[in-house]
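Figure 6 in text form: structure in, sequence out.
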């Protein structure tokens, strides 16, 4: 009988703790969860202007990440601001970052400018080719290729003599996208480049202009055994190379490509390659 008051006292304490601490705590947790869910559901995605603002006033990490996000979001035509103010702010941010220790800011901004398809960025990117580090030069050449403006041809041709194979490669790829006849003679010289990727893309760039000077190289690139001789090219990259070449060779209308295409159609291990080869053969 003496223990009963103690038991009742403990029970009363438990009720008090449960009522004034546990229950409110659980309610608070659920309230926070509901608030976060509502916040996520009602939050609007960042726009190009938001990311540009990060580039302009953010910390070092925030700035390059903002530039990176811009390079992605501006590849969607619906997300590209067209007004002059945004253009000038992009150019200003790119130029301001010239002395920044992190080259990634200008690198991604250059890619972002090229993704817009807006020719108002051409002069800025051309100027960057003269006074940039390797990564920014590569990105600027890449962007100029995407913009496709013939004003870039002379500057890109100058890059073909650059000591960096990666810069030469980006210049060749960009010239292939622009397809200016004035670049043909210079691209033919690149067929002798010591870097395989450079001469491969030179052959592709020439084929886009219906020039068959790189025919032998393109025939090699349709051969899996040839690609296997480059251990740094994995199977996924092999498929990418094959798909590009298969889609390019119909421009040349040369019957010598029929046999390697037929072999790929009939026996290649990748179904996408086989289907692409089948469609290419319809053009002969």
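Output sequence:
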């Amino acid at each position: 009988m003496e223990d009963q008051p103690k038991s009742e006292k403990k029970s009363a304490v438990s009720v008090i703790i449960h009522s004034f601490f546990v229950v409110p705590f659980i309610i608070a947790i659920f309230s926070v969860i509901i608030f976060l869910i509502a916040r996520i559901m009602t939050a609007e995605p960042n726009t190009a202007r938001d990311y540009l603002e990060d580039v302009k006033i953010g910390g070092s990490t925030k700035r390059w990440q903002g530039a990176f996000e811009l390079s992605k979001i501006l590849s969607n035509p619906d997300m590209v601001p067209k007004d002059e103010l945004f253009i000038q702010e992009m150019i200003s941010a790119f130029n301001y970052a010239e002395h920044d220790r992190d080259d990634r800011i200008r690198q991604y901004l250059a890619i972002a400018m090229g993704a817009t398809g807006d020719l108002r960025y051409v002069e800025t990117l051309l100027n960057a080719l003269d006074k940039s580090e390797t990564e920014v030069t590569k990105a600027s050449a890449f962007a100029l290729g995407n913009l496709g403006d013939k004003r870039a041809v002379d500057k890109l041709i100058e890059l073909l003599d650059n000591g960096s194979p990666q810069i030469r490669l980006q210049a060749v790829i960009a010239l292939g996208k622009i397809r200016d006849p004035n670049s043909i003679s210079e691209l033919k010289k690149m067929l002798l480049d010591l870097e395989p990727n450079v001469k491969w893309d030179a052959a592709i760039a020439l084929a886009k202009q219906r020039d068959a000077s790189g025919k032998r190289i393109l025939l090699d690139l349709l051969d899996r055994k040839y690609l296997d001789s480059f251990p740094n090219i994995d199977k996924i990259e092999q498929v990418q190379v094959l798909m590009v070449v298969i889609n390019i060779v119909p421009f040349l209308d040369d019957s010598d490509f029929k046999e390697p295409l037929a072999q790929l159609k009939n026996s290649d291990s990748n179904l996408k390659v086989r289907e692409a080869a089948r469609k290419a053969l319809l053009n002969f």
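Caption detail: Residues 214-284 form one domain.
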